Fold this sequence. Notes:
The protein is an alpha/beta fold. It has 8 helices and 9 strands. It has one domain: Acetylglutamate kinase-like (Carbamate kinase, 3-Layer(aba) Sandwich), CATH 3.40.1160.10.
Amino acid sequence: MLPKYKRILLKLSGESLMGEKNFGLDSNVIAQYAQEIKQITDMGVQVALVIGGGNIYRGMNEADTGIERAQGDYMGMLATVINGMALQSGLEKAGVTTRLQSAIKMEQIAEPYIRRRAMRHLEKGRVVIFGAGTGNPYFTTDTAGSLRAIEIKADVILKGTRVDGIYTADPEKDPTATKYEKISFNECISQNLKVMDMTAFTLCMENELPIVVFDMNKPGNLMSVVIGEKTGTLVS
Ligand code: UDP
């Protein structure tokens, strides 16, 4: 089987790593994701990863936390590094070679983010995990994912979520909602469909980077998207 995409950027939310828990990391989820990722690297697909931090800390709620937004955002970025280290361990356990690169320097645990070096790792078949988001407050890891995907010339950004694609309405609230198999960037805007935050979405649209939204928790789905089956929703 030939993969549809040669180089992908997989964006996972921090919350997906919680599994059934209310906070932190679920080792079963990490082991499962590692297996799913291994299957596609075994096919020769080059994989870059961006992980959120919402399972540990989100900086946006200054009113709740009493912590200034920018400070909280840096805390959120550090949370993504913790998640990146956890996934790195899971992947290495599964026999996948990895490198963690951080947008905020922390040399004892991660390489600094260097675009050309990241691309070299990918060419050598190593999974590259991008930690610390964009390195800037007021952004999200979706934006980090879009930015890095464009920088490393990924063919697509795969956004793993809890729902299996983009629906006409919120399927958790409206039972009549139907799923799009594919949709254009402009249609998403005109129908006010939230695929990613605006900054992330605009980056993809302006740079013609397709997005696939899919359910990462269903075993085999990642492979299915990568070989071009009709899984999830393709935005292009
Ligand atoms: N964050 C940031 N800049 C970035 C990426 C992330 O400031 O480039 C902070 C922000 O506070 C965010 C937190 O890190 O709330 C965790 O990331 P995100 O909310 O995107 O994680 P997810 O929702 O995917 O778990």
